[in-house]
Amino acid sequence: MIQLFKHVVHPEAIQQVTETLQSGWTGIGPKVAEFEKTMREYLDTPHAIAFNSGTGALEAAVACLTAGRGDYIITTPLTFVATNHVILRAGLIPVFADVEFDTGNIDVKSVQKLLENSFIRPRTKAIMVVHYGGLPVDMDGIYDTANMHKMDVIEDAAHALGAKYKNMMIGTKYSRYVCFSFHSVKPFAIGDGGLLTTYAPEVDQAARLVRWFGIDKTTSDRFTKDGYKWDYNVRTLGYKTHMNDIQAAIGLGQFVHYQEDSAKRQAIVDRYRERLEPNDRLTITNIRPDRISANYLFVILCISKEIKEALMQFLYENEIQTGCHYRPNHLYKMYKNCETDDGCKNAMEFFEKAITLPLHTALSMDDVDYVCDKIEEFTRRL
Question: pTM value?
C-alpha cells in the first residue's frame, strides 16, 4: 500500500534522543533551548517559543489577544478542527470566511465582506488564517485588512515551515503570532510539537508563562550551581503545553536533513504536476508566482463529488491511500450556529471535489508514477 503520509526518522534524531535519555534530563531543559535557538536562526525571528503541539502554540497566541468572552475571530472553515477549537476554548466565537477555490486559502475579499457587517465588525478582535497545504495566504491583503480595522492576525502555519511569501519566510520577524506544528505527518515531523514565533518581546514573555501554568521559572531555570531552588511565582492562568527535551532532541536531529527533505517533496510535487496537469478531467490546486509552498498537501480537484468518491475507491483498490483535507468546520455540530459568509460556498465545493494524494519523503518516483498511471487509467473511462 502506498501510504498517504509516512514519517521518516533520520539517524541523527535517534542519536540525539539517546543522548538526552542518557543525560537524565527529559523535561523542558537545554535541548528545548537549543531547538528554539535553531528555529530562531532558521526563521530569522527574534523570539521562538516551543510547545508540545501546534495546538498548544495556537492556544498561547489566542491567550495573548486583547479579547473577551463572546468576541469574534474571523477564521477559515477549511482546516483541521484544532484551529477553531482553540477559539471556542478561549470563550471566543469563530466567524467563517470563505476560501479561494483554487488554493484552499482564506479569501481576503470574503474577510472584507464580513467586516462590512455592522454586527460582526465591532465584535471582531482578530483574523485567523491557515496557510493551506503549505502555500502562504495573500499576506499583504490579510495584513492590510487587519491594520485598517486595528486588529491582530494569527497565522496557523501548521503546514508551512519553510514556506515563503515574496521571498520572506513564514514566521519571520515581521509577524506577531505565527504557529507551527511538528506533528508526525507534517513536513517537519518530530512525533509531535509546536512553535510560536513573534517579533514582540511581550508576546514571548506571555507565551512562556502560558505554556507552563503561568509559573515564572521552569524547573531547569531553578537548577543553579548552588543546587535546586524550589521557589517560584504564578503570574497568570496557563496550560501544561511546553515542549520537552525528548521532542526537542528529535527536532534537532530531524532538522539536519530538513532542506534535503524539502527538496525531495518539491521534486515529488513537480512530478505530479508534470503528469497530471495535462489531464482535463481534473484540476490541481493552484500556486502563486510570489510564493513558495512547504508542500504539506498535494490536492487534486475532480469535476464532481461522485467522480471524487469513485476515484478514491478505485485508488484504494489499487493499493493507494488518499485523503480529504478538510470537512468545512461549520458542518460540524458544535459550529453550526456560527456566522459564515453565505455558507462558504467555495469551501463546500472544494470539500466535495478535493482528493489529497500521497506526499512524503518515503515515496519513490516510481510510486508517484504509479499513482499518476492509475489516475489516468480511471479518467480515461470518463
Answer: 0.96
